[in-house]
Amino acid sequence: MNDGRDPFLPGASSPIARLVEAFHRLPGIGPKSAQRLAYHILRTQEAEAQELADALIEVKRSIVFCQQCQNLTSRTPCEICTDASRDRHSICVVEEPLDVLAIERTNGFHGLYHVLHGVISPSDGVGPEDLKIGELLARLRDVETEVSEIIVATNPNLEGEATAMYLARLLRPLGIRVTRLARGLPAGADLEYADDVTLGRALEFRQEVQ
Amino acid sequence: MVTGRIPRVIRTPAIVLRHRRLGEADRIVTLLTPGRGKVDVIAKGLLRSKSRMAGHLEPLTLVELVLAHGRSMDVVTQAQTIDAFPAIHSDLDRLSAGMYLLELADRITVEHAEAEGLHDLLHAALVRLARGDGQQVVQRTFELALLEATGFRPELTDCLRCSESVAAEAAWWVPVEGGVLCASCAKTYPEAQPIDATALRVLRAFQSVPYEEAGRIRLTDELAARMEQAMHALMRAVVERDLKSAQFVSAARRARVAGEASEDTETAKDD
Ligand SMILES: [Zn+2]
Questions:
Q1: Which of B104, B236, B244 is the best mutation test for A, with the most CBs of A within 10 A?
Q2: Nearest chain A Cα distance for residue B252, angstroms
């Protein structure tokens, strides 16, 4: 089956090594997990492997960016953007498509979205020009826009903060209210171990106990 | 004979420069330490919501760490924030400037190279930004001090080619060579750029006077922008790559100026 080399060795030119490599490139998959997944595929029926391969190709061929919110969708404008029951006065700006799903699960927001596809992160080589910020401005400058509030829901870290503050600065001249998700301590956190910024914010945005 | 590694645990202050994901929940954190320069360490379980270390290992934070010796990299076992510089985080101009200082310190230093005093230089600059010192002065003096400490001190007074001293009015700027040329030497150098005489004079002053004195020099927005342009070009040449954070500093300022301009028109309309 092989020339005596370990078929799972990275860099080996066997089909298995190629598959391991491919899995290893996926986010969050280490070398061990990549080997386990490859071994799992080896043991499955060919039809099952074919189904996975087809699904991969299908998703690449049929999914596009929504021309309005930039979310990934099979048709543009997407389902949310065309849903007449949604509130057109507010747009929630998120980093990634998965964040839309997370906010939808809360059932607490009924406006529209805008997906930036990243966050300002100079150390990763990402600046404002690499994000879908121009597309957001174009939406807001549209004469027919009804948007009066932008809720910036980027992550509560350095890059998320920088992105939120930059957006606020860009949007202020447009006369649009820009808000940020209130940041509290994560559930289960100890005050004792909380860092100062988080604790400070949690205090600043404190709410009345009902 | 026992040749095993000596197990060790060290306690050190550090400034967090950046981090990147490692596997499902871990992170590789890049630090600038006083004793060992720039080092990468592993922080385990940082992406789990109950991690007690997560908030303490964000970039632009001065932390006190306990590091355990690991096979390829040291592992963070305890982290405690000393200063999270909240005043920097509360203002976009300061924040983008802070990100720029971090990227510079990161790009200019080689891992484990004990560039003397870099940690202290960066710490001092962050403290100055946080207490509201002029951002232009903080950034320019940091750039110059960083270049000095890493052996890239720019030549701002004598021509790089003929060594004659150059009047600010007659100087040409050559970022890739790290300094100025006199007018006649610049003729044979296509990459030479004109540089504003006042901008060059102030940069010369920043290079030679203590920080407190530099801080007393008043800069107009226009002059500050010219100095920034010249120094960004120089830093780009030194680290041999685009500095995204430098572009972000400029983008943030452009957005502020545009906002102020539109406020002025609003006020004018109200009158
Ligand atoms: Zn859409």
A1: B244
A2: 7
Global pTM reads: 0.82
pLDDT digits (tens, 9 = 90+) for A11-66: 556 888 889 999 988 877 888 889 999 999 999 999 999 999 999 998 888 899 99
B55 vs A: CB within 8 A:
yes
pLDDT 10s digit of each residue in chain B, 271 long?
445 555 589 999 999 999 888 877 788 999 999 988 899 999 987 666 566 777 788 899 999 999 999 888 999 999 999 999 999 998 999 999 999 999 999 998 876 666 668 999 999 999 999 999 999 999 999 999 999 998 899 999 999 999 999 999 999 999 999 999 999 999 989 889 999 999 999 999 999 999 999 988 889 989 999 999 999 999 999 998 889 999 999 999 989 988 888 877 766 655 4
Domains of chain B: 9-84 (2.40.50.140), 87-267 (1.20.1440.120)
DSSP string, chain B: ---PPPP-EEEEEEEEEEEEEETTTEEEEEEEETTTEEEEEEETTTTSTT-SSGGGGSSS-EEEEEEE--SSSEEEEEEEEEE--HHHHT-HHHHHHHHHHHHHHHHHS-TT---TTHHHHHHHHHHHHHTT--HHHHHHHHHHHHHHHTT---B-SB-TTT--B--GGG-EEEGGGTEEE-HHHHTT-TT-EE--HHHHHHHHHHHHS-HHHHTTS---HHHHHHHHHHHHHHHHHHHTS--HHHHHHHHHHHHHHHHHHHHHHHHHHH-
Q: Is the ipTM of this complex over 0.90?
A: no
**CA A1–ligand 1 middle distance (angstroms):** 49
Is A123 within 8 Å of B103 when comparing Cβ atoms? yes
Instruction: Kindly state whether residue A54 falls inside one of the protein's structural domains.
Output: yes
Tell me which chain A residues have a C-beta less than 8 angstroms from the C-beta of B21: 27-28
How does pLDDT run across B25-65, given as a tens digit for each residue? 788 999 999 988 899 999 987 666 566 777 788 899 999 99
Judge if the upstream peptide bond of residue A77 is cis by omega within 30 degrees of 0.
Answer: yes
Per residue in A155-200, pLDDT (tens digit) is 878 898 899 999 999 998 888 888 887 666 554 445 555 566 665 6
Counts of helices then strands in chain A (DSSP H, E): 8, 6
Q: What CATH number has the domain bearing residue A129?
A: 3.40.1360.10
Number of domains forming the structure of chain A? 2
CB proximity list for A184: less than 8 A, separation 6 or greater = A201, A202, A205
Which domain covers residue A167, as residue numbers? 87-187
A184 CA distance to ligand 1 centroid (A)?
Answer: 29
